[in-house]
Structure formats: structure tokens, C-alpha cells
Amino acid sequence: MIFKELKEIGIVGMPPLAIIKKLNANSITIHDLDTPMIKADMELTAPYLPRVYCAILRTVVLNALHLTLDAIYIDVGTGKCDCALHTATVLEDMLDIPVHRTRNDDTTAFGNPISRSQMDLLRKFERITEGVKTAAKPNDPAPACTPTAGFWGVPPRDFTMLELFPDTTHIYGWTRCMENKTPADHELELHFNPDVPTVFYAQSFCAKTALARHLALKHPHGLYLDSDVTAGGSAKAKIQAFLELSGVKL
């Protein structure tokens, strides 16, 4: 594939930094297919992926059905999941564009200033997820704060649940790996702070639910939580009750 021939591409997970650098250098528009971009019924993905696939990968397919793309780069290594590998095969048969399988084993740490900053948690996640589209470090790193709560896990499909957390929430888990641009760094993903109440989150049907629940049980004050397409009232009530009972100032 000649990068100069591309105008609009989609990414799934975190392709290697070398690929992102080439896309940036050629001013190619990058669409993060993991994020909701299309207002359409999720049931449109049923002919392609089982309903027991996580909402993130079903969102990938929904986006791919509606966007005009020149190619897709999808991480199918340990920084993403086996289901992404199978989704790549589905996309390849669905679409008349190249689907490039990549494996991101990058180890150069970019750091975690956003994860540790005092900032609206939803805004933190927006900045981290937007960061996958560029190979550059943030030019305005936010100062670190003392955490009063923790959010461990992946970026949820429904960001509205993040509105329940205080600005002094630190981010852990795969999202911290994402900001660090080392999505396959399992040791970093395992890290959490035992001194702050922490919600351990994963999308329903994601393999990371096993790790989220395991770490929540190890944490002295952890809550395991999963949700599917949207974070319903029950999930939000659990978060709010957990934080309030933990004495976290919201």
C-alpha cells in the first residue's frame, strides 16, 4: 500500500506508532472505528458479528458499514484481542478495501500525564482516545493531582458513565497503556493504586472482564463493573453508590 494514495483510513485498536507516523506525515485523515461515529441501529451488525461480541467491535463494523474509507489498519496482537483478529477477517469479506492486520509491540513509553491529571474524567478519556491518531506527544501536559478515585479498564463505549467521577480520578488499565502508546504492556495494565476506591471496568463479553473482576477482588476497595452498548441506570447507580459509600467527594 502506497500511503500517498490514501485519503481516509480507519484504525481499530492501536496500530504501531510507525504506521501512525506515516499516516500523519502524509496528512491522511484517521477515523478511530472503535468510537461511536454513526447514529444507526446496532442490529445492523448482526449479520456480520454475533451479539455476544463486545459493543466496541460491533461499533467498528457499524462504522465500517457507513464510512467511505480507503483502507483499515487493525491491531490484532496482544494489545487488542483475538476477537479483533476475527473481526478483521469479517471486514475483509464485507468491504472492497484493504484490511491490514498489524501487531503493536511498541515499548517506548510516552508517559501518562493525562491519566494522572486533575481534569474532568470524560475529557481525559476524550484526549487519550484522540491521541491514537497522532504520533506526537501532547504539548500541554497537565500537572498531576493526588487521586481520590480510580477508573481501571478500557474506554467505555458510553462515555456518559464517566460524568459520575470526580476530576481527581486517576486512570489505570488498558486506557493508561493506550496513553503510553504501549497497548501490549501487560505489566502496566495490571497496575492499580490500592489506596483509592477504584472501579474496574470492561465492556460486556470482552475477555478483559476476567482481569477486571480478578483485580477488583484483589483491590481492598474495588468495584467490578461491565456494560454493553450503553451504560444503563443500574450501572450508573452502582458507580454513584460505590463512590458515595467510599467517601469520595463528587
Please provide a written account of the structure.
The chain is of the alpha/beta class. 32% of the residues lie in helices and 16% in strands. The strands form two sheets. It has a four-stranded parallel beta sheet with strand order 2-1-3-4, with helices on one face. Strands 6-5-7-8 form a four-stranded parallel beta sheet. Helix 1 links the parallel strand 1 and strand 2. Helix 2 packs parallel to helix 3. The longest helix is centred in the middle third of the chain and has 13 residues. The radius of gyration is 18 Å and the shape is globular. The termini are far apart.
Residue share in helices?
Answer: 25-40%
Global shape? globular
If you average the pLDDT, what whole number results?
95
Strand content range: 15-25%
How far from one another are the termini?
49 Å
Number of discrete helical segments: 8
User: H/E series, N to C?
Assistant: EHEHEHEHEEHHEHEH
Content-based structural category: alpha/beta
Unreliable stretches covering 5 or more consecutive residues: none
Could you give the count of β-strands? 8
Cα Rg: 18 Å
